[in-house]
Specification:
Elements lengths: L1 E11 L4 E12 L4 E5 L6 H8 L7 E6 L2 E2 L5 H11 E5 L10 H6 L9 H14 L15 H13 L5 E5 L7 H18 L2 E5 L3 H4 L4 E6 L2 E2 L2
Parallel strand pairs: 3-8, 3-9, 6-7, 7-8
Antiparallel strand pairs: 1-2, 1-4, 4-5, 9-10
Helix pairs in contact: 4-5
The chain binds adenosine-5'-triphosphate (ATP) and magnesium ion.
Length: 221
């Protein structure tokens, strides 16, 4: 599903050069649930953002669904990302001025779907995460776990084949974290969604199919 070949990422400023990702090659199979662990600053988010086509590598090749995405134009990339990928971040990244249902509909605005279809799909996604009773709330009227569930609904509303999650349980207590984890496990099992999750939590990582450990930008296991 995803093939990374010798990916390198260097961040350059006037004074410093940081090698954030140092020659990573990784295959993620369709339907796999992969977790990524490693100390702070070892390149986990950078690697996830590269896999999610939010950031470009300095070197190396990325293939998603057997397509070499480095050849895509910006417009093709945006379209591909919107259709194939869903993102979940540690800090939710919701829009506070929009009600829950409108937050979840956002990814669909870039597609040719009707207002009715968008609403139905958003309602369905919110049902999946157990938030049918909060459609008209605003994000700041929700608990952390509920906000993260809204973010998951937004990530899955377009039925992406791949979900990329950067510490999705990092801001939650363990009970809420386990609930979020259950939702991800069910998406993977029932819908066959490929999931790549960065986590600091060994317990969460051990619930996934495979664990990759990074250190200083390189894969160690
Ligand atoms: N925009 C940037 N410019 C310069 N250096 C950066 C930039 N983004 C990240 N880095 C550097 O790249 C390295 C990897 O960062 P990254 O955010 O991928 O780490 P991480 O493993 O996700 O850490 P954490 O667990 O703290 O989230 C770090 O040393 C960081 O300082
Ligand atoms: Mg990070």
């Amino acid at each position: 599903m995803i093939r990374l070949q010798n990916i390198e990422k260097v961040y350059r400023t006037d004074t410093v050069e940081t090698l954030a990702v140092n020659g990573i090659s990784l295959d993620v199979a369709k339907g796999e649930f992969l977790s990524i662990m490693g100390p702070s600053g070892c390149g986990k988010s950078t690697l996830l953002n590269i896999m999610g086509l939010l950031d470009e590598p300095s070197k190396g090749i990325i293939r998603i669904d057997d397509q070499d995405v480095s050849k895509f134009s910006d417009q093709q990339l945006a379209k591909f990302r919107n259709k194939k990928l869903g993102f979940i971040f540690q800090s939710y990244h919701l829009i506070n001025d929009l009600q829950v249902i409108d937050n979840v509909e956002l990814p669909l605005l870039y597609r040719a779907s009707s207002a009715k279809e968008r609403k139905d799909l958003a309602t369905e996604a919110l049902e999946k995460v157990g938030l049918s009773n909060r459609l008209r709330h605003f994000p700041n009227q929700l608990s952390g776990g509920q906000r993260q569930r809204v973010a998951i609904a937004r990530a899955i509303v377009g039925k992406p084949q791949i979900i990329l999650a950067d510490e999705p349980t990092g801001n939650l207590d363990s009970a809420m974290g386990n609930e979020i984890m259950e939702i991800l496990i069910n998406l993977n099992k029932n819908d066959g969604t490929t999931i790549i999750m960065v986590t600091h939590d060994e317990n969460m990582a051990h619930k996934t199919h495979r664990l990759v450990r990074l250190f200083d930008g390189s894969q160690v296991v």
